[in-house]
Each structure stands twice: as C-alpha cells, then as structure tokens.
User: Fold this.
Amino acid sequence: MTNCQPPRQPVLVTRSRVTKIFTAMAVSLFAISGTAAMAAQPTIVLIGGMKPGQPVGEHDYPDGVLKIERLIKASPDFAKLNPVVKAFPIGFPKNLAELDDASVILFYFGTDRGPNGSTNPLEDPSIKQHLTTLMDRGVGLVALHQSFTLPSKTSAAAKPFQDWLGASRVAVTDYSMEAAPLTVTAKTHPVANGVSDFNYLDEFYSAIDFAPKVNPILSARTHVQYTTGGKPVFQDPAKDRVIAWTHERANGGRAFGFGGGHYLASFDQPQVRKMVLNAILWAAKADVPQGGVNTTIPYTRQPGEPPQAQPAYRVVLRANEVKPEPQSWGMLKWFASRALGNSTKMTTGEATVAVGKANPVHWHPNTDEVLHVVSGHIMHRVGDQEYEMRAGDTVVIPEGTRHNARNIGTEDAVLAISFNSADRYTIGE
Assistant:
C-alpha cells in the first residue's frame, strides 16, 4: 500500500535555535542535579535565642539548639545524607546570607525583646524579607515552642507565620503547665514514623491560631490554667488540643510546628526527640525511615524504662593528648569537654595571657565560668567592673556577662578556667 501521508517539511535549525535547545537542556540538567544535591546533602540551619531569666533547664534555647545539633550529628539516618549543619544558638547571624543554602531552618527562641524592641525576630524587616525569599524558594521550616509567639495578631510577623508555618500564637494567652496524655493523630504521616502515644510534661498552648489545611500530628488532653495576661484559672474538663502539626505550602515548601519544648529535657523524651528529628528530615524533603529517625545519644531514662547502655568515655586525658591552641594574646588548652570525649557536664581548661596582652571581651550564653589565677597578675573585667587579681584569686562569671582578662604583670598569667557545660559556647566582641 502506498504511504498517503504528506512528506515532512524540513526543519530549519538556526544557530539561535541550537543555542536555545542547549540552554534549555542545561537548565533542566541543573535543576535535576540541584534537586538531587538537595536530597543528597541537605543544609540544616538551627536558630536559637537568648535564655531568659527562667529556672535552669527552662526556655534554654542556646543549649537546646546545641542539643539538636548533637542529635543530628549522632544520627546514622542523617549521616546517610551527609548534611551540613549550621547552628546559631543565640539568634540570627549578622550576615543573613549564611542562610541562603538552607534546605530547612529550625526556630527555637522565645519572646524576649530584641534590640529594636521586637518580641519576635520576624518583626525585623531585614530578617522578614530574607526569610520571605527563602520560603518562596520552598525552604522547609520547623518552629518549636515560643518561636511562633507574637505580641499581637497585627504583628508584622503574623502573616508570615500563618503562610509559612500554618499557625501563630499571641503572647500570654491560654496555656497550662501540666503532665498530659498525648495522642498521635496522623499515624501514617512520615513525621509520626516510630512515634506512639505517650504522657508528657510541658507548657501547653491552648490558643494557637491555625490556618486552613493544617495537618494535626499530635494532640494533648489539657486544661487551661492561665489565660490572657497570665491570670490563673482552672478550666475543667480537659480538652484535646493540637500541639504538633504539619503544613505544606503551595510552592512545595514543608513546615512543622510543635508547641512543646519548654524544658531542655524535652529532647530527652524519646517520642518528642524522634518526632522533631523526623520533622527536620521531612521538612528538608528527605525520606523519613519507617521506624523514625534514630540517634546514638542516650536519652534520660523515663519512669518504668530499663537503663540504657551509656557510651564509653575516656577516663584519663594524657598530657601528650592536650593540643595547645595559640592565640594572638596567648594560649588556650582544654582538658575536659564533650568534644574531648571525657565529660558530658562540664568544660575545663587553661588560659595563658602573655605580658601586656588581653583576650577579647566575650561572653558565654549557656554557661557560668569559674576563673582561678594560678600565676601572674591580671586585671579582670566583669560586666562594667574591673578587678585586680593575683595568684590564688578566683572569680565567678555568670552566664551572659561580658568579661576579659588583661595581663598587667611582668610574667605570663596562667588561668585555670572551668564551665558548667560540656558545650561551652563563646560570643566575642
């Protein structure tokens, strides 16, 4: 049979057309490789905040961020993706461009007033605009405890939180401090993988304003013990209230919110720990293991649970294992810390300040410091005061207090230094 189809017309391939074809192919390949890179090696940004004047272990945002960082780095499930983890324990970095490669950003901060009087960082126009660009790009978001709390519904941060997280809360509205039964309400959601119902002590928020199409993950059966303005009440019976949820934006960006996290010990509660780690992985658009994310860091044993095997720590640090760290002003040596593998509670070391030198003014947002003069003659600034110190003198510097040592003697000053955290964090000026 004769082919009755009309002959094909020749296609004129011009140089400009070839250029367009190759450009389109290059863009497609870049997009594919970029997506693969994001899935293969996510960048996780953790942003904390200043610790307010709460009892030890409450609203401890700096140590909370450092704890989450350790949990991620000790997770074999995260290790498969070789993630980049950037931790900023006391607030957003000065250079916001450090956030630009983020796959997911985690907020864990409170409502203390910032330098411009704001009670939430998103009220800062530069931070809000920078985050808007990232959220528009589909970057994931995880927000814990008070980080989505605003001074009012008309706050500049209200709409962003509703759009990005699917929820916000106004400060000092209904809440309770109690142990409550928690129920997993979305058992098939990846964030709930490996998470089962449990009882849990926390500060529970009863007045979270949710956007449409939020997916509840956890509900807590709680009372209202305090209402607007912190007025004590007690509303009975208890009611089921959503305390953890997910939200998926139209552009594919994923978000997870959790009202808990008042206590630093929250991250030692097995179900909470697993849920938060699941959420970080899910919000970064990576697959969550069926049994949930695991980490090798032991958690505090809960009532009725068998003891866990504790990791082995070195007992003796030999002199030849101490690595001196030269400084422009002298020398630092470290003898005990989590990084050295011989303490989970404290950091100890030795600072040597050379004649006529001074170390920079600095402060520690998550630990007190005890400084003992072993030898030499220094002038030590603590806050706005200066103290002359000689061999045998000791000073205690509260966390958050700016301080530094200046050698005013004729020989190097040797200072024994210790901190009540195995994860000493320093901010310099």
Q: What stands out?
A: The first strand starts at residue 43 and ends at 47.
